[in-house]
Design goal:
Layout: H1 5-12, E1 20-21, H2 22-28, H3 36-48, E2 52-55, E3 59-62, E4 68-75, E5 81-84, E6 91-93, E7 106-116, E8 124-135, E9 140-148, E10 151-156, E11 164-167, E12 180-187, E13 194-204, H4 211-219, H5 228-235, E14 250-251, E15 258-261, E16 270-276, E17 280-288, H6 299-307, E18 311-313, E19 316-318, H7 323-329, E20 337-348, E21 353-364, E22 367-370, H8 371-379, H9 384-390, H10 393-413, E23 418-420, E24 424-428, E25 434-439, H11 444-466, E26 473-475, H12 481-493, H13 507-517, H14 523-532, E27 538-540, H15 564-579, H16 585-625, E28 632-641, E29 644-649, E30 655-659, E31 668-671, E32 676-679, E33 685-687, E34 691-700, E35 705-710, E36 729-731
Parallel strand pairs: 11-13, 14-21, 15-22
Antiparallel strand pairs: 1-3, 2-3, 4-5, 4-7, 5-6, 7-8, 9-10, 9-12, 10-11, 12-13, 16-17, 17-20, 18-19, 20-21, 23-36, 24-25, 26-27, 28-29, 28-34, 29-30, 31-32, 32-33, 34-35
Helix pairs in contact: 4-16, 10-11
Length: 742
């Protein structure tokens, strides 16, 4: 029998056994002769994952005992990059040390020398070079087709791909000069940053309808269609819930249960009910039982895991599951039977969750409600027509509002951080053209559903942890103290103090700052800086708590149609309910080890989705601004660098660069500590938070950048400006992607 990955690593970490040959490892781990080839493949897998390194021929060492690190490399448009190392500092890779690696590749890199960051004496960053590419992130490149010097080439559209793709003769697929194409790489970049490939598909020219989204999809490796075996598997499910599927389930079909979603939503994976009790309230959160249909070791599961999450673009959704499930059997549509996994929470009058019960059930949603309609019913007196239409549901909505308020107050009391950061929402016409950019609409109904989902997620995480059932948790760690040091300086320049030990800073410290800046001119700017100081929330089989939510136990349970970790949590909870026992102790480590990989993969897929969504939104903003070149806008300064100011337009949430060369004839000095530019002769100052008038000078579609120049001469200091546009409350740093639940 082959050893487990952990056994190999343990052996290489033993004192006196830190460098072993293949034969020594095989002997110490009792690998049979006929298993040697499989054992060699296991070691190769550990190499590709960057956990062990081959040294001096066929000898192996755990990577931590070498001068090498492994991780995903992220490349900057300037050509240099960073290897992102789990549990350690990022490794800087200069352009000359890239070794043919491309953005997103998993690489093995060697630490070589410290590189001065040029900020303070002794402040250095370790530099290195790529030794080997372990896993390629992409085999296809999207770019502009050109013919230069008689050679056909594709210039990658993504500025992070520091290479040119030469196209073999006769392999251009009829592409025309300037056309956007997708090329398949036949050879990856060499030391001269030249790759080779063939044109697989012509996408179109910039500005043509749909080309922007196609570029985003292909640039980020997002699959636009489901493979045929996946579609076929989904189509084999019956159109309705079968009678035999109801066996052993609790019947909630007589309960007043509703879904509350956006007007354009088509997949409803959560439904709620609230009933007042003598002790307080009973909250029912009913989640589509996707795990009943999407089983492990199936084409559907493989594809869902590969995608990791649904991706939301303006006017388009790239779902994790085929429509037959996401909009059909797994969508809690009104008036039809649907299978659910339910969290039933008893909550007292102070908003404290007492007992929690989890059951498999069946519901029949009473109404498909929208956020707008529920908010109207909660904030205004119901009309006679409303009473006729909704009847007893009106009282349920009031009870929901009361309970959500209690849950919010209790979360606030424990130090949960809420940010007032309005997102941009692109308004499209029937033809899919951008006609406006407005603040994302969020109201009391959004917050109501959010509180219920948070409560259910916490309760499920607590149940799984206390039952010692392996699971995937949603983890948010404390902020990096170095970032907090910089943040503290900025806050002090505005007259605020971030109190406490930065190593152990409680989330309530951020909450106090947010309350202090509420309604102030600098609110938008500082809220954004506070959010950026947070670490990214990730998935992990280790329950380390959620810092921003001030929650010791947290997982994602409420969106299994849209997120693969939720589906894993459903399976683990369902297994616990079916047997009454957790995974056997002898199997716990193996399951947990598998979940390490699944969690890491899902975190990466979430980052990919967020990047694609941001890029598609930026595309739409650029299209919207194309006919506005030469116009002036009110803006405020959101970033200060030596080469200029980053500004955000107040009315459109569009960002761009105001180069230092456009600020006038003066020579401007960058004063980093004060986060400002100061004119050497005029002493004119531009700093974070200032309100200014800018003129749109031009748009660089290739770099997706808006360039501004100074418009009106008046600079309005942050402390003298009127209040910036505020948006509804957001709980950070959980991504609030379109259609996504917490």
């Amino acid at each position: 029998m082959l050893p487990r990955d952990s056994e190999v690593l343990d052996r290489l970490r033993e004192k006196g056994s830190r460098i072993l040959s293949f034969s020594e490892l095989a002997r110490k781990l009792h690998v049979a002769d006929n298993d040697e080839e499989a054992f060699r493949e296991l070691l190769g897998s550990l190499e590709r994952r960057g956990e062990i390194v081959r040294v001096r021929g066929e000898k192996y060492s755990a990577i931590e005992f070498t001068n090498q690190v492994s991780g995903r490399i992220t490349v900057r448009p300037e050509g240099f990059g960073f290897v992102l190392v789990d549990g350690g500092p990022d490794l800087f890779i200069p352009r000359a040390g890239m070794g043919g690696a491309m953005d997103g590749d998993t690489v093995l890199a060697r630490e070589e020398r410290p590189r001065s960051r040029g900020r303070n004496a002794g402040d250095e960053r370790i530099a290195g070079a790529v030794v080997r590419v372990l896993d390629r992130a992409r085999e296809r490149v999207v770019g502009r087709f050109e013919k230069a010097g008689g050679r056909a080439e594709v210039l990658p559209y993504d500025p992070r791909i520091d290479a040119v793709v030469r196209i073999a003769d006769g392999k251009s697929h009829g592409a025309r000069e300037g056309e956007i194409v997708e090329a398949r790489l036949t050879a990856f970049p060499d030391s001269r940053r030249v790759a080779h490939g063939v044109v697989e598909e012509r996408i179109g020219f910039l500005g043509e309808p749909g080309v922007d989204i196609e570029i985003v999809l292909r640039s980020h490796g997002l699959p636009p269609r489901f493979p045929e075996p996946v579609v076929a598997e989904a189509e084999r499910f019956p159109p309705r819930v079968r009678t035999e599927d109801l066996l052993g389930r609790r019947d909630f079909r007589s309960h007043r249960i509703v879904t509350i979603d956006g007007e354009t939503a088509k997949d409803f994976d959560d439904a709620v009910e609230v009933v007042r009790t003598d002790a307080g309230y009973r909250l029912g959160v009913h989640i589509a039982d996707v795990s009943h249909y999407v089983r492990e070791v199936t084409a559907l599961d493989d594809e869902a895991r590969s995608r990791g999450t649904s991706v939301y673009f303006p006017g388009r959704v790239l779902p994790m599951l085929p429509e037959r499930l996401s909009n059909g059997l797994c969508s809690l549509n009104p008036g039809v039977d649907r299978l659910v996994l339910s969290a039933l929470l008893e909550i007292d009058r102070k908003g404290k969750v007492g007992s929690a019960e989890f059951v498999k059930g069946v519901i029949r949603s009473s109404e498909r409600m929208t956020y707008t309609e529920v908010a109207r019913l909660l904030e205004t007196r119901p009309s006679p027509a409303d009473r006729d239409r909704y009847g007893p549901l009106l009282e349920n909505f009031r009870e929901m509002g009361e309970l959500a308020s209690l849950l919010r107050q209790r979360r606030d009391a424990r130090g949960s951080i809420d940010f007032d950061l309005p997102d941009a929402d692109v308004v499209l016409d029937d033809a899919g053209l951008v006609v406006g950019i407005v603040p994302e609409s969020r109201n009391v109904a959004h917050r109501l559903i959010e509180e219920f989902m948070l409560a259910a997620n916490e309760a499920v995480a607590k149940r799984l942890l206390f039952a010692k059932q392996p699971a995937i948790y949603r983890v948010h760690d404390r902020p990096d103290p170095d970032r907090l040091t910089d943040l503290r300086e900025v806050l002090e320049s505005f007259g605020y103090e971030l109190k406490g030990d930065l190593e152990e800073l409680p989330s309530s410290a951020f909450q106090k700052i947010l309350k202090a800046i509420e309604g102030k001119p600098e609110e938008r700017l500082l809220s954004d800086l506070l959010l950026r100081a947070q670490r990214k929330a990730v998935y992990s089989p280790e329950c380390r708590g959620h810092y921003a939510l001030a929650a010791p136990y947290y997982c994602h349970f409420t969106s299994p149609i849209r997120r693969y970790p939720d589906l894993v949590v459903h399976r683990q909870l369902s297994g616990l309910l079916a047997t009454g026992r957790p995974v056997a102790p002898k199997d716990f480590d193996a399951v947990n080890e598998r979940f390490v990989e699944v969690a890491s993969h899902c975190s990466e897929r979430e980052r990919r989705a967020e990047a694609a969504e941001r890029e598609s939104l930026l595309w739409k903003k650029i299209v919207f601004m194309k006919d506005k070149i030469g116009r002036e806008f009110d803006a405020y300064v959101t970033g200060v660098t030596a080469f200029g100011l980053f500004v955000t337009l107040r009315d459109f949430f569009v960002e761009g660069l105001l180069p230092v060369s456009s600020l006038g004839d003066d020579f401007y000095v960058y004063e980093q500590k004060q986060h400002r530019l100061r004119g050497r002769s005029s002493s004119r100052i531009f700093r974070l938070g200032d309100g200014i008038r800018v003129q749109l000078k031009g748009i660089d579609e290739v770099r997706r950048r808006l360039d501004f120049r100074l418009g009106g001469t008046e600079v309005i200091r942050a402390e003298a400006r009127g209040r910036l546009r505020r948006g509804p409350s957001r709980t950070a740093p959980e991504p609030r992607r379109r259609g996504a639940r917490r």
